[in-house]
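Appendix C: a fully annotated inverse folding record. The material below is reproduced so that readers can follow the format used throughout the book. The structure is listed first as C-alpha cells, followed by the designed sequence.
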C-alpha cells in the first residue's frame, strides 16, 4: 500500500469510528431530547414481554424498560416498545434503532466481546431446560435419545442443546423457528417431541397451550442463562444509567422500599435510603439525572420483588418461585452494589 492510499484509508477509518462513537456517546441526551425511550423487546413471551389487543405492554423485561424511562424522563410510560426476533435484536441495538435491549437475552462471553454491546446486569437468572409432551411419559432428559426438538434460531439454545446431547452420547433432530410463538405452535401441533429453551420461557409458553397439562417441564437444567438488559458499547454514561436503574430497584427491595411506602421513606434517617432516594448525596447528578431518579423508578414501577411477583410470581399463570432470583440475603443471587 502506498503512502497516499494508507493516509486516505486511515482517514476513512477514523471518520467512521468518530461517527459511530458520536452516535453512541449521546444516548442519554438523545433520549431526553426525544422524550421517549426506544426499548427492544421480544415478539411476545408471557410474563416477560406481552402486548394485549390494545397495545398495552406487560412483563418483567417491559418493567425493566419502564424503570429506566422513569429514572431518565420521570415518566415510566414514556417508552416505545419495539418487538424484535432473536436474530434481529443485536443488529437493532448496534445500528441505533433502539436505545436499549430488554429481551430475555443471555449474557455470554462471545456476545460481550464480539458484538459491540454491553450487558448492564441480570434481571433474571435462568437455565435451559426441556418441555415434553406429557403423553410420552418421559421423566428424565436422559430418555430423549433420538427425539425431535423445537428450538428458536439465533439463540444460545442451539449450542447448549448440541453440547448436552453430545456429552450424553445421544442423538436428536432439531426443528428451528424464528420466534418463540412459532416454536410452541410447532410443539402443540406435534411436529416435535420436545421444546427446548430457557426454563422461564418454557413455563411461559406452557401457559399459552390450550391445555397446559399436556406438557411437562423436566427438572433438568442444562446451562447458566443470566438474562438482562443490553446497551451499545462506547457510551459509558448510558451504560451506567441503565445499569444503576436496575440496581436501584434491587437495592430498594433489600431496603424494604416499595411503590406503596416510598413517599414515607423519603423521611428515613437511614443514610443508605437517603442516598438512594436522593434526599442526600449526588448519586443522580453523577449519572446525569435528577436527584429523584431512583424515587421515580420505584414509585412508578416498584422494587425488583414487586416486578417479579407481578409478572412471573406464584400468583401469576407462570407460578415461578423466586429461587435463584431471590435476594442474596434470602439465599438467591440477586445482589446490587451499594449507592454510595
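Designed amino acids, in order:
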Amino acid at each position: 500500500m502506498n503512502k497516499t492510499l494508507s493516509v486516505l484509508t486511515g482517514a476513512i477509518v477514523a471518520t467512521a469510528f468518530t461517527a459511530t462513537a458520536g452516535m453512541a456517546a449521546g444516548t442519554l441526551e438523545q433520549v431526553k431530547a426525544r422524550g421517549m425511550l426506544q426499548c427492544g423487546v421480544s415478539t411476545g413471551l408471557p410474563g416477560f414481554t406481552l402486548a394485549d389487543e390494545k397495545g398495552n405492554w406487560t412483563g418483567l423485561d417491559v418493567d425493566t424498560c419502564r424503570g429506566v424511562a422513569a429514572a431518565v424522563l420521570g415518566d415510566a410510560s414514556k417508552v416505545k416498545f419495539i418487538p424484535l426476533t432473536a436474530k434481529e435484536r443485536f443488529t437493532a441495538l448496534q445500528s441505533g434503532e433502539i436505545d436499549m435491549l430488554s429481551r430475555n437475552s443471555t449474557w455470554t462471553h462471545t456476545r460481550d466481546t464480539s458484538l459491540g454491546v454491553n450487558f448492564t446486569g441480570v434481571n433474571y437468572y435462568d437455565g435451559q431446560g426441556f418441555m415434553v409432551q406429557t403423553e410420552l411419559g418421559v421423566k428424565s432428559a436422559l430418555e430423549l435419545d433420538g427425539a425431535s426438538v423445537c428450538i428458536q434460531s439465533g439463540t444460545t439454545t442451539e449450542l447448549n442443546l448440541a453440547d448436552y446431547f453430545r456429552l450424553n452420547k445421544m442423538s436428536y433432530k432439531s426443528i428451528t423457528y424464528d420466534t418463540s410463538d412459532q416454536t410452541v405452535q410447532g410443539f402443540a401441533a406435534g411436529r416435535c417431541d420436545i421444546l427446548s429453551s430457557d426454563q422461564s420461557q418454557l413455563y411461559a409458553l406452557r401457559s399459552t397451550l390450550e391445555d397446559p397439562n399436556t406438557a411437562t417441564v423436566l427438572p433438568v437444567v442444562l446451562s447458566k442463562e443470566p438474562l438482562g438488559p443490553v446497551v451499545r458499547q462506547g457510551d459509558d454514561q448510558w451504560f451506567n444509567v441503565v445499569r444503576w436503574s436496575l440496581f436501584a430497584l434491587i437495592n430498594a427491595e433489600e431496603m424494604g422500599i416499595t411503590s406503596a411506602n416510598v413517599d414515607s421513606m423519603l423521611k428515613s434517617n437511614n443514610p443508605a435510603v437517603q442516598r438512594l432516594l436522593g434526599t442526600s448525596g449526588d448519586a443522580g447528578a453523577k449519572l446525569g439525572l435528577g436527584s429523584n431518579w431512583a424515587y421515580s423508578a420505584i414509585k412508578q414501577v416498584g422494587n425488583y420483588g414487586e416486578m417479579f411477583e407481578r409478572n412471573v410470581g406464584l400468583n401469576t399463570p407462570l407460578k415461578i418461585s423466586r429461587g435463584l432470583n431471590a435476594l442474596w440475603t434470602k439465599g438467591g443471587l440477586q445482589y446490587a452494589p451499594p449507592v454510595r
